[in-house]
């Protein structure tokens, strides 16, 4: 890791040598560490703070072929006021939609502080030409998206064509505009096969300009897991130490309960450190998680659970 990062992507051979020179991941150790941290408990007095922090970290997401403007507007209303009868519940971080629904979300969220994120680059497969990926991104940014969630070409990565993956990420980063939309790079870790590949893909994305690295599209199993997120958190921690640039992490897919969310918060604190316990640096990609957070929050406030139909379904 002595090669200056500015020179790493100068050729395929240099990039490959750098990525394969990263320390290998002890899979057994990573699994054990994540399992241990997953058993940590927090005091009851801190649980409400943890729940509110998790709510503020949620990217409320709808990425279905049946999405309609009405569904997106309803989701935006929920994002701003998750519990309409309790003004103390914070807003979520962002609403994530397909590019064609960005204008609807932008209009609904104008002035609220909730960001509009959009998937782009032939989500979820990533199998399209670079021209299409760049245009997809440009259209979403022009429509008002403040965050872009792109997918890497996993086929190119697994074939060892790291330079192609780097160049695509860099091109999409440029399409986000200088000082413009933040770029969240989806690794689709469920298809990367090994933790070593997850570490390499994390560094590759960060070197190419990612503002966030994200586990999954939510369309492939397994999606987010604690051990994979641990590897990614270690990567952003080490990248900051090496370069001085801080990058966020977003696990997405399969995080459904308050208990799950708190496990991830503990993982962040113990791996990357408390500086990442902020929506600017850690997000939870989810659709069903928010309702469970709201149910648990209300239980702590009132002493009873709401019925299953108390909160709107997403």
TrEMBL record:
What does the record give as the reaction this protein catalyses? 2-deoxy-D-ribose 5-phosphate = D-glyceraldehyde 3-phosphate + acetaldehyde
Q: What is its EC number?
A: 4.1.2.4
Q: What class of enzyme is it?
A: lyase
Which biological process terms from the Gene Ontology are attached to this UniProt entry?
carbohydrate catabolic process; deoxyribonucleotide catabolic process
Q: What's the short name of a Pfam family annotated to this entry?
A: DeoC
> Which Gene Ontology MF annotations are present?
deoxyribose-phosphate aldolase activity
Classification via SUPFAM superfamilies: Aldolase
Q: Which GO terms describe its cellular component?
A: cytoplasm
- The name of this protein is Deoxyribose-phosphate aldolase
Q: Does the keyword Aminoacyl-tRNA synthetase apply?
A: no
Give the pathway.
Carbohydrate degradation; 2-deoxy-D-ribose 1-phosphate degradation; D-glyceraldehyde 3-phosphate and acetaldehyde from 2-deoxy-alpha-D-ribose 1-phosphate: step 2/2
> Which organism's genome codes for this protein?
Microbispora oryzae
This protein's UniProt keywords: Lyase, Schiff base
Q: Which family does the entry's similarity section mention?
A: Belongs to the DeoC/FbaB aldolase family. DeoC type 2 subfamily.
Q: Which NCBIfam families match?
A: deoC
Q: Classify the source by domain of life.
A: Bacteria
